[in-house]
Amino acid sequence: VEATAAGAAPTESKAKGTKRKRLPPASEDAAERPPPSKKERKGQLVSATTPKEVAALPPPPADVREVWMTNLPVIVSEKDLYAAYEELGWEAITKVKWMQRTHAAGTSFRRCAYVTFATPDLARRACTLDVEIKGKKPKLELTNPHHVHKSLELFTQGWPTQITDKQVHEAFLLLGLTGITAIRWLPKKGNRLSCFLDFDSKEARDKVLQGGTLQYKGRTVLVQKPLNTLPSDQRTAADRSAKSCELFLDPCFKAMTNDIIQTHYESTLGPDTVVTVRRWQNRGWVVFKTHELALQASKMKPPRNPGKEQVLVRWRLNAK
């Protein structure tokens, strides 16, 4: 092959028509080097950022590697999360704990999850990335690990149906109990009877848990640990024990209010024997303090639906 006019001999790659990969000039200063490409970063953990990016990150909590992720698509998998945050490294995400949500029809779907990263720095960086998963932008929040979060939670039931969050805070303040950070009502639609309470410390939660019950405007509010904080065997036993204190009423029309049901049973069994009454459509569940009280109530004549005297309420005692 003859030399070109410039005096440089063409390389073999040029003769074949392929492009030569241009390399950046060697530099001793690492700051002048271009950032590694996405292909070069793949397969390794990326934990270092520029000083400007580090200054823009939120202050890190002490060794928090778990992120609470919401606003996810209805149909999503772990592979979708790994693909969205692959620039952090393929080993950045170490664990995904899905939180199932249920439609009224009974089908479950995924909309939020606890995502654990390999390092606290990766968790902080994930909160600053602008990514999309199947057209939706997830919302990320640094949070305590799932088991720590559950240790600061209590479940309460038996509140008046029209109570507000402010009244719940005032009810605990009157007893000298503070530290409530969040209130989540169940169910989300309909009357407010049961809710989860989040506390800022375990000491504040244990102080509320000591009494076991709370008196509010003549009603007895039951306070207990959530069942999902117990081991599986204890959870099953606790669930059976709770079901053994319930009396099932069907049909239970709107005209037969909770006050009518509560007065019917407490006039015979005594005051404060009914903890709460749960309603769903034309069915009701009367929760008593003990299994023995539920047995006594099952032997009583059931209440009648007002205006429909010919229709008796069928009752069934939940098996222990």
What's the topology here?
Blueprint: H1 12-16, H2 38-41, H3 51-56, E1 66-70, H4 78-84, E2 93-102, E3 108-117, H5 120-128, E4 139-142, H6 146-150, E5 153-157, H7 165-174, E6 180-186, E7 194-199, H8 202-209, E8 213-216, E9 219-224, H9 232-243, E10 246-250, H10 258-269, E11 274-280, E12 283-288, H11 291-298, E13 314-317
Antiparallel strand pairs: 1-3, 1-4, 2-3, 5-7, 5-9, 6-7, 8-9, 10-12, 10-13, 11-12
Write a structural description.
This protein is of the alpha+beta class and 320 residues long. It folds into 3 domains: 97 residues, RRM (RNA recognition motif) domain (Alpha-Beta Plaits), CATH 3.30.70.330; 75 residues, Alpha-Beta Plaits (2-Layer Sandwich), CATH 3.30.70.330; 79 residues, RRM (RNA recognition motif) domain (Alpha-Beta Plaits). 27% of the residues lie in helices and 25% in strands. It contains 11 helices and 13 strands. A 5-stranded antiparallel β-sheet has the order 6-7-5-9-8. A 4-stranded antiparallel β-sheet has the order 2-3-1-4. The longest helix is centred in the C-terminal third of the chain and has 12 residues. The N terminus is likely disordered. It comes from Eutreptiella gymnastica. InterPro entries: Nucleotide-bd_a/b_plait_sf, RBD_domain_sf. This is RRM domain-containing protein. GO terms for molecular function: RNA binding. Keywords: RNA-binding.
